[in-house]
Amino acid sequence: MNHNTLSSLGLIILMVVFMYFFMIRPQQKQRKAHQSMMSKLKKGDHVVTISRLHGVVYDINQAKHTVTLDCEGIYLTFDLGAIMRVNHQDSSQPAAKDDKPAKKEDQSTDQTADKETAKSDAKADDDKSAADDKQTDDQAADENKEAK
Known about the structure:
Elements: H1 3-40, E1 46-49, E2 54-61, E3 66-71, E4 74-79, E5 83-87, H2 104-147
């Protein structure tokens, strides 16, 4: 065989290996992950479709490969492949740490602190207003002395 033929054959093999590791293999992993997600899909899950429609799974029909979503009272039927992802923050699971509602004690403490801050701000405004009034009175008194 010719040296050019071998190098061309090596280049083609290298391109096929490159395509496998950077295109085909990641796509296969993604497909397996999506199939796994679809097999775990159940009624009540919050999902997002490929068209970015958010809804709650109302019914799954495995025979027809369809899913019915409840979108705030409107029921829409989609192909199972239209489900892009499942949001795991549904009402049956606890909210994320940052999303937890504040405890009553914390709320009352926050409200008390807010009231105290408002009172101190109001007092500072009153003190400033009184100081301004006093300065105006002093200036008026000085002007009266100069006029006499």
